Amino acid sequence: MIALVDTSIWSLALRRNQEDLNSFERASVHALHELVTAGKARIIGPVRQELLSGISQPAKFEKIRIALQAFLDEPLNTLDYEEAARANNQCRAKGVSVTAVDILLCAVAVRREWAVFAADPDFQHYRRVLPLALYALPSR
C-alpha cells in the first residue's frame, strides 16, 4: 500500500540523531526506508515545508532539502482542500481538534485510498472520525 508520510516520520529519519532513537523510532525509520525503496512513500508540500522549518543551521537545512528532492510533492487540487475542510468540520463536531497540515494529510490519504504513516498519536484520534487507514509497522 502507498503511504503518505507525515512530518513526524520524515523528521525521525532526516532530522534526528539516529543513535538517540528508541526501538519504535528505529523501526519507523527502517519501515520508511523500505517504503522508499519500494517506491511507496509519498509527501505533500506542506509536510516538506514543516520538515524544513525551524532548522537553524543552514548546512543541515540544505542537506535535508537536497535529500527531499528525490521525492516529488503529491499534486494537490481543490477537492483535496475541500475534503480537508469537511474532515476538519467532522472531527471538530466530534470534539477532535486538528491542525491544518494533519487534516490535509488525512484528506489526501482518504481520497487516494492510501495509508498515513505517522508517529504522531493525533492520527489515532482522527481515525475514530474519518475512514483513515494508518500504516502499521511490519512485524518482525
Named CATH architecture: 3-Layer(aba) Sandwich
Briefly, what CATH class?
Alpha Beta
How big a fraction of the residues is strand?
5-15%
Return the average pLDDT rounded to an integer: 96
**Low-pLDDT ranges:** none
Q: CATH homologous superfamily - what is it?
A: 5'-nuclease
Supply the number of helical segments. 7
Residues in helices, as a percent range: 55-70%
Counted up, domains total: 1
Please outline the major beta sheet.
Answer: 4 strands, parallel
**Class inferred from helices and paired strands:** alpha/beta
Q: Give the termini separation.
A: 18 Å
Secondary structure tally: strands:
4
Shape: globular
What does this structure look like?
The protein has 140 residues and is an alpha/beta fold. It has a single domain (3-134), classed as 5'-nuclease (Rossmann fold), CATH 3.40.50. It has seven helices and four strands. It has helices spanning 7-14, 23-37, 45-52, 58-68, 78-93, 100-112, 122-129; strands at 3-5, 41-42, 115-117, 133-134. The protein has a four-stranded parallel sheet. α7 links the parallel β3 and β4. α1 (7-14) crosses α2 (23-37), α1 (7-14) packs across α3 (45-52) and α5 (78-93) packs across α6 (100-112). The longest helix has 16 residues, at 78-93. The chain is globular. The chain starts with a strand and ends in a 6-residue tail after the last strand.
